[in-house]
């Protein structure tokens, strides 16, 4: 296997969903560090724009659930977000500052083995094309916007937004993209074809009902990324079906389970 290919051949590769977020506060440097030390092949993060057009790794529209503050991410500046603690809400109790995409790219690319970063754009159409513009600028700056092939890319842009995926494909055609979702057009593959996505990303609930979509995607040259797989039978199903990437909140457990499949 080529050393730059971050997946292990034949089995799904493990993506740490929001970091090792089953153990530590999601989207914190500590949660990503833990996932890396547990051997994750990839890291997943959600990104949103702040009021001053910085990309930060926060899942929700507001900061109430994951910080000690209140407010809408897109109405706050990065400096305002930095005033809050994004770790102490979690039972692990470790305080943490807001994580920027820049922080996470640095952490990922500095790791001693190649790890892939799955960057999910949240509701990008609300901002015209500013999310994609800022994201691609940053990927260019880090030298990862034009990989030699999708298989050797260190970054993958994922989104529920077909328009968002299409804008990335148009501007950075070598960058792999995954269209997330559970609609009939995702299951049938027509949505991914329409926007040129290199992969499809159903939930594990959809995959249980429509296992045939993995073969259908493969026949069209697309990989499948399944989320969020925290139970052993689901991981086994993904392995049996030939799913390429499994996103989990517990990367250490999933890696252990995959040893025996
Ligand atoms: O990795 C895809 C998955 O994260 C999509 O759902 O709500 O966790 O962002 P959500
Ligand atoms: Ca996500």
UniProtKB/TrEMBL annotation:
Q: What is this protein called?
A: Glycerophosphodiester phosphodiesterase family protein
Residues in GP-PDE domain copies: 12-258
Q: Matching InterPro entries, A to Z?
A: GP_PDE_dom, PLC-like_Pdiesterase_TIM-brl
Q: Which residues form a coiled coil?
A: none
